[in-house]
C-alpha cells in the first residue's frame, strides 16, 4: 500500500506543472468579442508578457500577437496575411467556436482554419505567446504556433508530420506585415531550406540556404532553454548555431525570418538594465551569415530587387542600393529594386547615334554574376570593356577584372552584390546628363511654321546638307571596309574568331612554350605544356597539342572550336584560343595553378572533407551546364580526376570538355569505338547502345566515390578482392550500414555521417548499369544540394533491376 501511494504521489507531482498551466489560462468564452474602437482592444496572457488582439499600425490595426510588457512592443504573429483593418473591425469567438475577423459593416475577412470548430470550448492567449482554440479537455483545436507567420518563439515546434504549416514567410518591409518574398520551410523530406518566391505567384526559386538533412530532419525546435535545432531520425540533433543561448528566465527570445531574408535569433532583457531599457532587440546569431554573397541559383532577383545590388552595412545587415543612374522603384521598399533614371539606349544602325548621350560610370568591388550574355577573356583592359559596352545597345553594364576579363550584362541586372575584397569593377551605362540637357543641340525641335516659307527653306537646306554629308561618309566607310577586308584576308598574323577566341600562329605558341619545353601532363591523344603569352603581359596559359584529331577540314575544326569557346561557366576551364595551321592543331586554355584533382586525391597532399564536398558540387554544376544549358549539348566522354583542374581557390574546373567532337572516330583508351578511360567508362559503350549524356553521369558517379574515399576505383594491389573495386565495396558498406569503413582515416567525413550517406547514395544512383535508371546531372545537382530527396538506391548489379523505376 505504501508503494502505491508513493507512485501516486510521484504521478501527481509530474502532472502538477500541467495542472498549474491549465489553470493560468485567461479563458475567452464562446460569444466573446472585442472591437478596435475599444480603449484596450486585446486579450493578455496571465503573466502579461503577450497580448492578442488589435495592434495599432499607421492609423490602422493588425490582428496580431505581440510582446506587451516591454517598451519595444514587437509583433510575433499576424492574421489576415498581415493586411491591416480599419476602425470598427471586430474579432469574435463565435458561439460555433470560430475565431472570426469582420469589418465595420460585418463582412468576414478572416477566420481560423481549424478542422473541427464544433469541439471548441474556449480560447486563450498563453504565457508562451501561443493563442489557442481549446476543447473542454484542454486539447488544442487550432493554435497560432501551428500556423506561424514570420516568427517562432520558445516552446514552439515546426513538425512536418502534423497537418500544420511548417514554414515561415517574411514580411515585405519592417513596417509592412503583408507576405514578402522570403520563405523558410521544413520540407516533408526533412530538409530545412530558405528560398525566395516570385511574387505575386507562388513559384519558388532555388534555395539560398539548406540544412542538408534530407531523409533525416523531423522537427525544427525552439526549446525552453533558448536552443534552436533540428531533431534527426538518425538520433541526436543538428543545432542551427554553435552559440550558447542566454537564459529564457532573464531574456525574452524570438527567431524571425526578417524582411531581408535572414533568419535571426533575438534577445531582450525581461527587467530594465541599470541604464534603462534598450532601444532594440539584440541579435544572437543569423543564417545565412552573408546573404549578399549567397547563391540564389540561376533565376530571380536574389536578396535585392532587379537593377540593384546588395551591400552589408556596419551592422552586417544587407542593404540594397541602386547603381549610378538608377533610382528605387519604391523608396519605401528598397528591396523591390531600381529603375533607370534616364531614357535607355535604342538600337540603331548608326553606331555613332547609339552612343551619343551615354557614358559609363564606375562602381568598384561590385558584380551582377548572373546577367552575362558575353564574356571576353582575351587580355582586354577596362577602357576596351567600357567602349564595347557603350557601343552595344543590348549592354546595360559591364564587369572588368584585372585587365583580362570583360563580362557584358543584359537588362535587368540581377543578384548583384558588393564585396570589398573583390577585384571586379562594374561599369554602368547611364544617360549623359549634359547631353540630355542639351538635346536640342543634337536634334532639331518640333516646329510649328505658321506659313513662314523662309524658315521652311532653311530646314530643307539643313536636311539636304546632312544627307549629303552622311552619303559621303558612308561611301568612304564602304571603300575603307572593302580595302581592309582584302588586306586582312592575306594576313598570317593572329586573328580573332568570335568574341572570345583567338587564332594563334604555331610560331606564337612555340615561343610562348619556349619550344614546348615544360610539360604539364600527357594523355593518349594530347600533351599539355605551360606557356606565357608575351603579347598579353605575361599571361600564363596551358597549351594542349592534339596528336590525333580530325584534319583536312579547317572550317569544321574552327566551327567546333568556336562552339566550345562560347561556353561560359565558373566550373569549366575557359578555352582562350586555338591554332589550326597546316598539320598543327593546338588549344590554348587558361592556366590552373593547383593542377588536377588527381594530385589531391591519390597523392600525399589530400584536401579536407569540406573542400571535397564543394568540389563535388562544382563538378556537378559544370556537367549540368554542358548537358542542358549550352546551345548544343556537349557530352564530355572522359570524366575523371585528371580532367578536373583546380584554380587558386580550389574551385573545380572541368577541362577537355568538347574534345570528343575533335577526336578521330577510332580514338580510344580502351576498346575501339569507345571514348574515355578504363574504370570510368559506362557499360553501354560495350553494348552498341546509343550514347547519351548518361555516360558522363556514370563517370561522375565513379569519380564521386573516389573523391569521397580518396582512393582509385580499381586498386589491384590492395591484396583483398572484396575491396579491390571501390564501387562494389561502396554498395556493400551502404547495405550493411558501415559507411565509416569507406572513410576509415578521415575523422571529419565520419563525423558528417548524413552528408557522407547522402553522397554515397547519389553515387550509387549514378553508376546504375542501366542508363535509364541514372538521374540527369541536373537532378544529381539537386540531390547533392538537398533540394530533392535522394531515394534508396538499388544495387548496381543488373540482376536487381527488374522492378526498379527510373528517377529522372
Automatic annotation (TrEMBL):
Pfam families documented for this protein: B_lectin (PF01453), PAN_2 (PF08276), Pkinase (PF00069)
UniProt keyword terms in alphabetical order: ATP-binding, Disulfide bond, EGF-like domain, Glycoprotein, Kinase, Lectin, Membrane, Nucleotide-binding, Receptor, Serine/threonine-protein kinase, Signal, Transferase, Transmembrane, Transmembrane helix
Keyword Membrane (UniProt): yes
Record GO cellular component, one term: membrane
Entry keyword annotation includes Zinc: no
Main location group: membrane
Domain Protein kinase intervals: 514-788
Annotated EC: 2.7.11.1
Domain Bulb-type lectin: 28-146
Localization in the cell: Membrane
Bilayer disposition of the protein: Single-pass type I membrane protein
Gene3D superfamilies (alphabetical): 2.90.10.30, Bulb-type lectin domain, Phosphorylase Kinase, domain 1, Transferase(Phosphotransferase) domain 1
GO molecular function, one term: protein serine kinase activity
Catalysed conversion reaction: L-seryl-[protein] + ATP = O-phospho-L-seryl-[protein] + ADP + H(+); L-threonyl-[protein] + ATP = O-phospho-L-threonyl-[protein] + ADP + H(+)
Positions annotated to bind ATP: 544
Signal peptide residue numbers: 1-22
Protein family according to the UniProt entry: Belongs to the protein kinase superfamily. Ser/Thr protein kinase family.
Protein name according to UniProt: Receptor-like serine/threonine-protein kinase
Organism: Aquilegia coerulea
Amino acid at each position: 500500500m505504501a508503494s502505491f501511494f508513493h507512485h501516486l504521489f510521484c504521478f501527481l507531482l509530474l502532472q502538477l506543472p500541467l495542472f498549474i498551466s491549465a489553470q493560468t489560462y485567461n479563458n475567452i468564452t464562446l460569444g466573446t468579442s472585442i472591437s478596435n474602437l475599444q480603449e484596450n482592444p486585446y486579450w493578455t496572457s496571465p503573466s502579461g508578457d503577450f497580448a492578442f488582439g488589435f495592434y495599432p499600425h499607421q492609423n490602422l490595426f493588425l490582428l496580431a500577437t505581440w510582446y506587451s510588457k516591454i517598451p519595444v512592443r514587437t509583433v510575433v504573429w499576424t492574421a489576415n496575411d498581415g493586411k491591416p483593418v480599419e476602425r470598427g473591425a471586430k474579432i469574435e469567438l463565435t458561439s460555433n467556436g470560430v475565431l472570426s475577423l469582420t469589418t465595420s459593416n460585418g463582412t468576414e475577412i478572416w477566420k481560423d482554419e481549424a478542422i473541427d470548430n464544433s469541439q471548441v470550448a474556449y480560447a486563450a492567449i498563453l504565457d508562451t505567446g501561443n493563442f489557442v482554440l481549446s476543447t473542454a479537455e484542454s486539447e488544442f483545436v487550432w493554435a497560432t504556433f501551428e500556423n506561424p507567420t514570420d516568427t517562432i518563439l520558445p516552446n514552439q515546434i515546426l513538425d512536418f508530420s502534423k497537418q500544420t504549416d511548417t514554414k515561415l514567410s517574411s514580411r515585405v518591409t519592417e513596417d509592412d506585415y503583408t507576405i514578402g518574398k522570403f520563405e523558410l520551410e521544413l520540407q516533408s523530406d526533412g530538409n530545412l531550406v530558405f528560398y525566395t518566391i516570385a511574387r505575386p505567384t507562388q513559384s519558388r526559386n532555388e534555395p539560398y540556404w539548406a540544412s542538408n538533412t534530407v531523409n533525416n530532419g523531423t522537427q525544427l525546435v525552439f526549446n525552453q532553454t533558448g536552443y534552436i535545432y533540428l531533431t534527426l531520425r538518425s538520433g541526436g540533433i543538428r543545432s542551427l548555431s554553435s552559440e550558447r543561448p542566454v537564459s529564457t528566465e532573464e531574456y525574452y527570445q524570438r527567431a524571425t525570418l526578417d524582411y531581408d531574408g535572414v533568419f535571426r535569433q533575438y534577445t531582450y532583457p525581461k527587467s530594465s538594465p541599470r541604464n534603462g531599457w534598450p532601444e532594440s532587440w539584440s541579435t544572437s546569431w543569423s543564417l545565412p551569415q552573408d546573404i549578399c554573397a549567397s547563391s540564389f541559383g540561376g533565376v530571380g532577383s536574389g536578396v535585392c530587387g532587379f537593377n540593384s545590388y546588395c551591400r552589408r552595412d556596419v551592422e552586417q545587415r544587407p542593404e540594397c542600393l541602386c547603381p549610378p543612374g538608377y533610382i528605387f522603384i519604391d523608396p519605401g521598399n528598397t528591396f523591390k529594386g531600381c529603375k533607370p533614371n534616364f531614357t535607355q539606349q535604342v538600337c540603331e544602325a548608326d553606331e555613332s547615334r547609339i552612343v551619343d548621350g551615354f557614358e559609363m560610370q564606375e562602381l568598384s568591388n561590385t558584380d551582377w554574376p548572373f546577367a552575362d550574355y558575353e564574356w571576353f577573356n582575351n587580355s582586354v583592359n577596362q577602357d576596351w570593356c567600357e567602349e564595347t559596352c557603350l557601343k552595344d545597345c543590348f549592354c546595360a553594364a559591364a564587369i572588368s577584372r584585372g585587365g583580362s576579363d570583360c563580362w557584358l550584362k543584359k537588362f535587368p541586372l540581377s543578384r548583384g552584390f558588393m564585396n570589398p575584397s573583390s577585384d571586379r569593377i562594374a561599369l554602368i551605362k547611364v544617360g549623359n546628363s549634359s547631353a540630355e540637357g542639351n538635346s536640342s543641340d543634337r536634334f532639331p525641335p518640333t516646329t510649328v511654321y505658321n506659313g513662314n516659307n523662309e524658315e521652311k527653306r532653311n530646314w530643307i537646306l539643313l536636311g539636304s546638307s546632312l544627307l549629303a554629308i552622311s552619303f559621303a561618309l558612308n561611301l568612304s566607310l564602304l571603300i575603307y571596309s572593302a580595302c581592309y577586308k582584302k588586306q586582312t584576308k592575306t594576313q598570317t598574323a593572329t586573328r580573332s574568331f568570335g568574341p572570345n577566341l583567338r587564332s594563334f600562329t604555331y610560331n606564337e605558341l612555340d615561343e610562348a612554350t619556349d619550344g614546348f619545353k615544360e610539360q604539364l601532363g600527357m594523355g593518349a591523344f594530347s600533351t599539355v605544356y605551360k606557356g606565357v603569352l608575351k603579347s598579353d603581359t605575361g599571361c600564363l596559359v596551358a597549351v594542349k597539342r592534339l596528336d590525333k584529331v580530325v584534319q583536312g577540314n579547317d572550317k569544321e575544326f574552327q566551327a567546333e572550336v568556336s562552339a566550345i569557346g562560347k561556353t561560359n561557366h565558373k566550373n569549366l576551364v575557359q578555352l582562350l584560343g586555338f591554332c589550326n595551321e597546316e598539320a598543327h592543331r593546338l588549344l590554348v586554355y587558361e592556366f590552373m595553378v593547383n593542377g588536377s584533382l588527381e594530385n589531391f586525391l591519390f597523392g600525399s597532399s589530400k584536401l579536407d572533407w569540406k573542400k571535397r564536398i564543394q568540389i563535388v558540387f562544382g563538378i556537378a554544376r559544370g556537367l549540368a551546364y554542358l548537358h542542358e544549358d549550352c546551345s548544343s549539348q556537349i557530352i564530355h566522354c572522359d570524366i575523371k580526376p585528371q580532367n578536373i583542374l583546380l584554380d587558386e581557390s580550389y574551385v573545380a574546373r572541368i577541362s577537355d570538355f568538347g574534345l570528343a567532337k575533335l577526336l578521330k572516330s577510332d580514338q580510344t583508351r580502351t576498346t575501339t569505338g569507345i571514348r574515355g578511360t578504363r574504370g570510368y567508362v559506362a557499360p553501354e559503350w560495350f553494348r552498341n547502345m546509343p550514347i547519351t549524356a548518361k555516360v558522363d553521369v556514370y563517370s561522375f558517379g565513379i569519380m564521386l566515390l573516389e573523391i569521397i574515399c580518396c582512393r582509385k576505383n580499381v586498386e589491384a594491389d590492395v591484396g583483398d578482392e572484396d575491396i579491390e573495386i571501390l564501387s562494389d565495396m561502396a554498395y556493400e558498406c551502404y547495405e550493411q550500414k558501415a559507411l565509416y569503413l569507406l572513410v576509415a582515416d578521415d575523422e571529419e567525413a565520419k563525423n558528417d555521417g548524413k552528408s557522407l550517406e547522402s553522397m554515397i547514395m547519389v553515387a550509387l544512383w549514378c553508376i546504375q548499369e542501366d542508363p535509364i535508371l541514372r538521374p540527369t546531372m541536373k537532378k544529381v545537382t539537386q540531390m547533392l544540394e538537398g533540394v530533392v530527396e535522394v531515394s534508396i538506391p538499388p544495387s548496381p548489379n543488373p540482376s536487381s533491376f527488374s522492378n526498379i523505376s527510373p528517377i529522372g
